[in-house]
């Protein structure tokens, strides 16, 4: 609503300035004349011109364009304007003749030896100016309608994007919680005291997911801290002899803002699919901020072929991540996932 009022005020201001310049233009031409009566009479004679232009302009702008042209009644629109222009043109002609006859009596007349252009010349010239006024009103009206339609489309698209993001987030929270609880369940069997610590850590992680995740953007510092806590929670059930972790996450986000929980899907997948209970494996997670204001996340992990009956890698998390990236960072991100022999690599690059 404030933006609508602002646009309305801007529109009124532009119209007022344009007509104001037309009304005041004779003073610039009359400047320096000594005969004030002559200048005033000339101005009063001139005033009928902008007044009739205003009438023609706003009859079209406020009535005829909406009711005739935009409703596809082109023939009726042209006919009404022809009648309007002819009527206004004749009115201007008779106004000038009567005004010169009874008010501007000091001006030379044709009967006094003064020879000017014939009357039809002024009628045709005025007809052209009035037709241009109609064309101007149509151009301004159609341009305004186009901008308004585009603004409405953008608003609808924005609302659709917000609704889709909200839906994706609602899917993300249960997905995150489901994977975390599975890890804690496995930890309970291996090390109950650490499982208790894990539940306590999970409460902090959930606070971030439930509250900070409601914001569109969050500081990169908080996102880094969240990922470190999550990785620490996941590493509690891992044996350092079996799994090699290489974590490189900066402490300082340099004041950048980022959409929350963008990287957690990639980290979850690395721990979920890159760690084997029976074979040696590794997980490498690295973040860096380049000089070009780009955040680069590179994750590598061991690759173990899945059993044919394993349905754990349904790909819902990655699909949601791609959708969120397309909505939040269109044309500002690169997401790559590929198998490199016995390794699996995921890389997400975001232009901050």
From TrEMBL:
InterPro entries: Bact_2-comp_sensor_kinase, HATPase_C_sf, Sig_transdc_His_kin_internal. This is Histidine kinase. It comes from Alistipes hominis. GO terms for molecular function: kinase activity. Residues 163-239 form the Signal transduction histidine kinase internal region domain. Keywords: Kinase, Membrane, Transferase, Transmembrane, Transmembrane helix. The chain crosses the membrane at residues 12-31, 43-65, 77-95, 119-140. The lineage of its organism: Bacteria, Pseudomonadati, Bacteroidota, Bacteroidia, Bacteroidales. SUPFAM superfamilies: ATPase domain of HSP90 chaperone/DNA topoisomerase II/histidine kinase. It comes from the Bacteria.
